[in-house]
């Protein structure tokens, strides 16, 4: 079976062709980062318009690179939500129109399920059940995954997502949008021991997160500090250390609570090197195993949507052609 996957939930246009026997045949990604940079964040209307411009040429390219004619496809998967409604509508309308014209079934995929299953695109695939930490710009959650579609949310952020906290703190440090990776780079120049950020909600039981306090703490720290490059790097270091440490503590708790020894980390923030190092050390200590997507599949992409769509298609779960977009959609 072969499927076309389309991702347009935010500011990346992603398209991929996935085959259940041969794996990923092609994937295309166009990032709108430059378009939104001057505004310090994603401008929804500009995002929708740019998806309109880029999507069809990317689909043509993905099919050509995969040496696939549309008659060889078994379905079209698209991100149905959550995300920006206008951006989602572009992917959903194009996916459903092509499916109608080509006589194919559609599969509306949950964006976070896409992230969750992205590590399955690698050679070393995690076996079910496992605990997944999903950390992106829009969501932070811990999920017990028993199988495809069998998700139990163990905890989630009660305010900002981890990626959002990275981006907002990066902005306070004068870095461009999206600041997460830039803050991580600045933190590489930093030194520990100068600033001590709190580890929110780790002193009480439970698996929920809260990251908005860290941003406020960063704002106060920056206000009271000198503006030398080394000081900024030290603050970035301390902030990142606090986020990573908080995520590590909560993951350890989730593994203990579920009795599981496999941990999957996915979503944009899973590209963070300090986070990967800490999680690896913890899982070595617990004699467990940690899995991540390849760096390019940590952030939004079409490959994860094609993969998740394939699993749904194989289970006979297709969507109605009248399904539009679901901007707010719990996992
Ligand atoms: O999953 P994603 O591409 O989009 C959403 O679904 O939100 O995640 C983007 C988020 C942004 O907040 C970005 O700053 C963050 O992931 N991010 C990082 C790193 N790379 C991306 N945060 C920290 N360190 C990184 N290396
Ligand atoms: Zn995402």
From TrEMBL:
Where in the cell?
Answer: Cytoplasm
Q: Which UniProt keywords apply?
A: Acyltransferase, Cytoplasm, Iron, Metal-binding, Transferase, tRNA processing
* Reactions catalysed: L-threonylcarbamoyladenylate + adenosine(37) in tRNA = N(6)-L-threonylcarbamoyladenosine(37) in tRNA + AMP + H(+)
Q: Where does Fe cation bind?
A: 111, 115, 300
Q: Where is the Gcp-like domain?
A: 24-307
Q: Name one Pfam family in it.
A: TsaD
Looking at the record's lineage, which domain of life comes first? Bacteria
Q: Which GO terms describe its cellular component?
A: cytoplasm
CDD domains of this UniProt entry? ASKHA_NBD_TsaD_bac
Primary residence: cytoplasm
**One MF term in GO for this entry?**
iron ion binding
Look up the EC number in the record and give it: 2.3.1.234
Residue runs in coiled coils: none
Q: Where does substrate bind?
A: 134-138, 167, 180, 272
Q: How is the cofactor bound?
A: Binds 1 Fe(2+) ion per subunit.
By sequence similarity, the record places it as follows: Belongs to the KAE1 / TsaD family.
Q: What's its job?
A: Required for the formation of a threonylcarbamoyl group on adenosine at position 37 (t(6)A37) in tRNAs that read codons beginning with adenine. Is involved in the transfer of the threonylcarbamoyl moiety of threonylcarbamoyl-AMP (TC-AMP) to the N6 group of A37, together with TsaE and TsaB. TsaD likely plays a direct catalytic role in this reaction.
- What protein name does the entry list? tRNA N6-adenosine threonylcarbamoyltransferase
Which lineage? Bacteria, Pseudomonadati, Pseudomonadota, Gammaproteobacteria, Alteromonadales
């Amino acid at each position: 079976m072969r499927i076309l996957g389309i991702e347009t939930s935010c500011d990346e246009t992603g398209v991929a062709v996935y085959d259940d026997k041969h794996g990923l045949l092609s994937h295309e990604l166009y990032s709108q980062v430059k378009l939104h940079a001057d505004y310090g964040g994603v401008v929804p209307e500009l995002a929708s318009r740019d998806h309109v411009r880029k999507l069809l040429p990317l689909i043509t390219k993905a099919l050509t690179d995969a040496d696939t004619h549309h008659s060889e496809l078994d379905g079209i998967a698209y991100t149905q939500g959550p995300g920006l409604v206008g951006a989602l509508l572009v992917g959903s309308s194009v996916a459903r129109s092509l499916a109608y014209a080509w006589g194919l079934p559609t599969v509306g995929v949950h964006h976070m399920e896409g992230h969750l299953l992205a590590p399955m695109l690698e050679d070393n695939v995690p076996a079910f059940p496992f605990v997944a930490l999903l950390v992106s710009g829009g969501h932070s959650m811990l999920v017990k995954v028993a199988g495809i579609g069998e998700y139990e949310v163990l905890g989630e952020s009660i305010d900002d997502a981890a990626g959002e906290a990275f981006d907002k703190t990066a902005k306070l440090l004068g870095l461009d949008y999206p600041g997460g990776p830039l803050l991580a780079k600045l933190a590489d120049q930093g030194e520990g021991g100068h600033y001590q950020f709190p580890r929110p909600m780790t002193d009480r039981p439970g698996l929920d997160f809260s990251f908005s306090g860290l941003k406020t703490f960063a704002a106060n720290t920056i206000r009271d500090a000198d503006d030398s490059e080394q000081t900024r790097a030290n603050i970035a270091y301390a902030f990142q250390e606090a986020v990573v440490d908080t995520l590590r503590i909560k993951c350890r708790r989730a593994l203990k609570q579920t009795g599981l020894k496999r941990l999957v980390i996915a979503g944009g923030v899973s590209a963070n090197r300090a986070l990967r190092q800490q999680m690896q050390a913890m899982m070595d200590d617990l004699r467990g195993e940690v899995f991540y997507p390849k760096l390019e599949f940590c952030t939004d992409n079409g490959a994860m949507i094609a993969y998740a769509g394939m699993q749904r298609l194989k289970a006979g779960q297709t969507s109605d052609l009248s399904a539009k977009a679901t901007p707010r959609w719990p996992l």
